[in-house]
Amino acid sequence: MKYDHVIWDFNGTVLDDMQVGIDSVNQMLAARGLPTLSGVTEYRAAFDFPVEDYYRRLGFDFDREDFKTCLAPLWVSLYEQNEWRAPLFAGVEPLARALRANGVKQSILSASESVMMRRQLQARNALDWFDEIWGRDCIHAYGKEGLAAAWRAAHPDAVAVVIGDTVHDFTVAQAMGADCVLVAAGHHSYERLISCGAPVVEDLFACAKLLLS
After folding, report:
1. Domain stop point among 85, 110, 129
2. Which residues have CB under 8 Å from 18's CB, separation 6+?
3. What are phi and psi of 57, to 5 degrees?
4. How many other CB atoms are there within 10 angstroms of residue 178's CB atom?
5. Where is the domain boundary, 85, 107, 122?
6. Does residue 11 sit in the same domain as residue 38?
7. Residues 29 and 110 occupy one common structural domain
């Protein structure tokens, strides 16, 4: 293979939790008399990093409710009540196992809180598919530029590719000197992803064909 390390995004790439996230934020919007998201299309157009800006875009008033101390913990609480409904994407296991069989190291790099990610992977018997888990120590999902810099410092010679589902993943890949493959099955639409200029595939099975061919 061209690469000796694959860096996976987590939410929307490994874990198919988009609907759980939509349902959680819609509960919060409805409780405040704000317009709810009509579905996946509207959500994909609105969602972005940092998540704080996404909340502002949806109409949350940070003068009335602080993002860090009120809104973010509330969303996590609602999400955790229903995260059991979120499966791994069907293509994760075969691709992870094929990469390992080819001697490729694999990391997860995510803006999500690391303890929660490990718990979610363990609950789905997938924790040992990955060599390293890089996540945040908080629930605020600011982004992962700092994590990416730390990962690159720890792997200065790695020839890496990022697998992700958002424009942010592409930006992070560029910052760490890695290639990127974007999968249009998660939090950003194909139209948003194709603007990056990186390869965009429909699912992880197509991603596997691209990386393993």
Report:
1. 85
2. 12, 40, 43, 186, 187
3. -60, -30
4. 22
5. 85
6. no
7. no
DSSP secondary structure, the chain, as one string: ---SEEEE--BTTTB--HHHHHHHHHHHHHHTTPPPP-SHHHHHHH--SSHHHHHHHHT--TTTS-IIIIIHHHHHHHHHHHGGG-PBPTTHHHHHHHHHHTT-EEEEEEEEEHHHHHHHHHHTT-GGG-SEEEEESSSS---SHHHHHHHHHH-TT--EEEEESSHHHHHHHHHTT-EEEEETTSSS-HHHHHTT-S-EESSHHHHHHHHH-
Same structural domain, 69 and 113: no
Q: What is the dihedral of CA 122, 126, 130, 134, to 10 degrees?
A: -40
pLDDT digits (tens, 9 = 90+) for 116-153: 999 999 999 999 999 999 997 744 444 578 889 999 99
67 within 8 A of 55, measured Cβ to Cβ: yes
Residue 146 shares a structural domain with residue 44: no
**What's the chain's average pLDDT?**
94
Domain range for 52? 18-85
- Positions of the chain with pLDDT lower than 50, given as ranges: 138-142
What does pTM read for this prediction? 0.94
Q: Provide the domain count of the chain.
A: 2
